[in-house]
Amino acid sequence: AQSVTQLDSQVPVFEEAPVELRCNYSSSVSVYLFWYVQYPNQGLQLLLKYLSGSTLVESINGFEAEFNKSQTSFHLRKPSVHISDTAEYFCAVIPSGTYKYIFGTGTRLKVLA
Amino acid sequence: EAQVTQNPRYLITVTGKKLTVTCSQNMNHEYMSWYRQDPGLGLRQIYYSMNVEVTDKGDVPEGYKVSRKEKRNFPLILESPSPNQTSLYFCASSLSPSQPQHFGDGTRLSIL
Fold it and tell me: At residue A1, does pLDDT exceed 80?
């Protein structure tokens, strides 16, 4: 069965430090991959996506993620975080040819001053 | 403004009293979906719809019903709510399943 694993439930990091949020998936077919961010008391917003093409994808606010097919990973990185990045981050996959979304359990990023 | 609108935002009710959470999108999206979010479990898909009159079960459909009579609306129905359905619910829509989803602001349900 397909699944998504976000091993880190919470990640504390100091402001301006780099951060990596890990996401691994299992699927026997190709997948589309997404990172969503949820700020307190809000819905989810798309952060970035991988559908095809270049394996490195970037968002407008400095996050990037790299699709690694051999390791079935889609880790999210940012070289220097801000207080405003404090939020919960969800990795999601949808296997191609299906209609079912699978979300990870989320990682709470806490940026400390 | 492109948006997904859910109502109500908050609801406290009692076991067994039927309720409906409405969801409407104004983007002409074909794909719509309902999720529940629980601490430590992330989001789990309840039902999804590929188009009008086409719906299917997600991972946690027990105790829920949906309908898609119009493209813009996708209500979630709890015929006989129970306390284990206390959760935060999100509706989402997208052009197709492989495209990013737009989420509503959520509905917090408490079933006593």
Answer: no
Q: What is the pLDDT of residues A53-75, one digit of tens each?
A: 788 888 878 999 999 988 899 99
Q: Can you read off the two tokens belonging to residue B98?
A: 């492989």
Between β-strands A10-14 and A107-112, what pairing exists: parallel, antiparallel or unpaired? Answer: parallel
Q: Tokens 């829920």 appear where?
A: B64
Q: Give the N- to C-terminal CA distance of chain B in Å, as an integer.
A: 36
Give A31's pLDDT tier (boundaries 50, 70, 90).
Answer: confident
Contact B40 A9 (CB under 8 A): yes
Task: Return contacts of A82-85, CB within 8 angstroms, 24+ apart.
Answer: A82/A15, A82/A16, A82/A111, A83/A15, A83/A111, A83/A113, A84/A111, A85/A19, A85/A109, A85/A111
* Chosen from B9, B30, B38, B43 to mutate, greatest number of chain A CBs within 10 A: B43
Q: In this complex, how many residue pairs, one in chain A and one in chain B, have their CB atoms less than 8 Å apart?
A: 58
Chain B residues whose CB is inside 8 A of the A96 CB are 98
